[in-house]
Task: inverse folding
């Protein structure tokens, strides 16, 4: 299951053997790059960033590190290997062979699920695009960019399914994924949490803590999908999602630790004094927490 990086679109799905699909995706690729240039991390195109890229979906290859300019990141299509004779685990079709093609009766439901999942990926990149301008540290900056390029890849994952299995309406949906904009009055993202602003780093950490966690449960459900290509795609996405939640947990922990340190050192819980001392007071942290847990 090694990923073919000689192709314009790195993939482990043997894209070369399906010329129509390959052409359709190669047509979508420049649209994606235009979107990244317009809506991806602001002012970063020229920077070398130390990023993780997958060269295969197994343990040896899923995390290869190196410097790359983000617009040159090798976004591609990676599916976990097929589980031979996989059976459907739940529901009316329990015990039947997992579907390798989309059954007509579930076509619109499956398309909706894939589009909704796909829509969250570019949405969060849009929400976070200004954060690099005010990063607390290099460490945080690198984590932010790692999350951003992976959300970009998750979009690719859903777009592959739309192109490969949903014909013309799939292609139209893939285009619409690049047309909607987080928070736009006329053409917003599908889910509410993805139209909120992420104006500062506490918001970002809360977002990765709560919203990526919600995403993780959503993806975990999809890994059990009767539609096998969806199950295999989301399984690999979950590997990357673990790090996103780590970013949230670790960020919130550091902020609270520092606040507690200053509270103890200065023997105060007065928000105004704590703010003057350069830390975030607990009532403010609580408000952020309430907001993000409720919009998620
Ligand atoms: Fe994602
Ligand atoms: Fe994520």
Result:
């Amino acid at each position: 299951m090694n990923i073919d990086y000689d192709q314009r679109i790195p993939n482990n799905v043997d894209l070369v053997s399906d010329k129509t699909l390959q052409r359709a995706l190669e047509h979508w690729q420049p649209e994606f790059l235009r979107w990244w240039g317009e809506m991806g991390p602001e002012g970063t195109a020229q920077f070398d960033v130390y990023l993780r890229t997958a060269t295969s979906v197994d343990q040896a290859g899923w995390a290869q590190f190196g410097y790359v300019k983000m617009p040159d990141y090798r976004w591609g299509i990676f599916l976990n290997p097929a589980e031979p004779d996989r059976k459907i685990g739940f529901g009316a079709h329990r015990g039947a062979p997992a579907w390798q093609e989309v059954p007509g009766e579930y076509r619109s439901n499956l398309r909706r699920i894939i589009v909704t999942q796909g829509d969250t990926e570019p949405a969060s990149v849009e929400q976070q695009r200004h954060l690099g301008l005010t990063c607390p540290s290099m460490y945080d900056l690198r984590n932010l960019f790692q999350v951003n390029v992976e959300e970009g890849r998750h979009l690719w994952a859903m777009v592959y399914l739309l192109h490969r299995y949903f014909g013309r309406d799939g292609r139209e949906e893939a285009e619409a994924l690049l047309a909607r904009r987080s928070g736009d009055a006329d053409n917003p993202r599908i889910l509410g949490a993805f139209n909120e602003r992420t104006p500062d780093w506490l918001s970002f950490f809360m977002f990765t803590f709560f919203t990526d966690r919600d995403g993780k449960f959503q993806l975990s459900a999809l890994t059990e999908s009767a539609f096998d290509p969806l199950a295999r795609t989301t399984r690999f996405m979950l590997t990357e999602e673990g790090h996103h939640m780590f970013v949230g947990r670790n960020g919130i922990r550091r902020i609270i630790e520092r606040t507690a340190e200053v509270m103890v050192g200065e023997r105060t819980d007065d928000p105004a004094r704590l703010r003057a001392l350069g830390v975030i007071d607990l009532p403010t942290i609580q408000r952020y927490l309430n907001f993000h847990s409720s919009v998620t």
Summary: The chain has a mean pLDDT of 94. The first strand starts at residue 48 and ends at 53. The pocket of fe (ii) ion (ligand 1) is lined by residues 121, 151, 154, 215 (CB under 6 Å). The CA atoms of residues 117 and 218 lie 8 Å apart.
